Amino acid sequence: MRNGALLNGPLTALIGDLGHSDKIMIVDAGWPIQKELRYDLCLTHGIPRLTDVFSVVAEELSIERVIIDSEMRSHGPEVYAEVERIIAATAEAQQEAIAVDHEPHVTFKEHAKTVKGIVRTGECIPYCNLVIVAGLAFEPKGQRR
Fold first, then answer.
1. Which domains does the chain have, with CATH numbers?
2. Do 123 and 50 contact (CB within 8 A), yes or no?
3. For the whole model, what pTM was predicted?
4. How many angstroms separate the Cα of 138 from the Cα of each of 61, 97, 110?
5. Catalytic one of 20, 45, 75, 105
6. Is 101 helix (H, G, I), strand (E, B) or coil?
7. Model confidence pLDDT, tens digit, residues 98-110
8. 74-90 pLDDT, tens per residue?
């Protein structure tokens, strides 16, 4: 059994397969996902929350950039605040800044065409979606200069 934070085998494999600048999405329960890209973690309404999944993924992956569905700010301000907190904590742990972009939902949806995987959560607040762009991890976290 793995000793890391992430115990989901298929999701662990997805993250392990990412290279620099590859993208994955973490989305709300209503996002339409083609079968070959779907990593479905949704159990019921609100479980797991988008921020629960993002927090664990952030521990496992070097993150260069996060793209946030801009409608999250108005539809899920509490989710948005937690996403910001996770980004700040991850940047501190990585000892490297993480770029943050916001895109209108209509533009944001286009990322689904170029991602390596889409992780469906139980988040039932509309527009609570984000894209993670993988960074470089040539040295383990905490040992970077």
1. 17-134 (3.40.1650.10)
2. yes
3. 0.92
4. 12, 16, 30
5. 20
6. strand
7. 999 999 999 999 9
8. 999 999 999 999 999 99
